[in-house]
Amino acid sequence: MPLSHEHQMTLLKDILSNHQTDCCGSISEYEQVERLVKSLLVNNGVNQNVKSILQDVYQYSQSGISTSDLDEHIQTHQDQLTQWVDGMNQYS
Known about the structure:
mainly alpha; 79% helix; YtzH; YtzH-like protein
């Protein structure tokens, strides 16, 4: 059974929050973020304001997949991670 967009959003926020608090992640997490974002971007039930945030999160996942230092990548995006999760909470 596929996840609803609400569950996908919750999962995405959980992964981003974990990156923010733990300051570490894995390639598979970035790949999962990428899949979630792609699915949410084509869903008509997702608020347009959230979709603009999702575009930034997609770029984050893309650069995370190709980075040589995952932890540094997460550390560099600490402020954005907080802003993205807060924004998704505000509009969803």
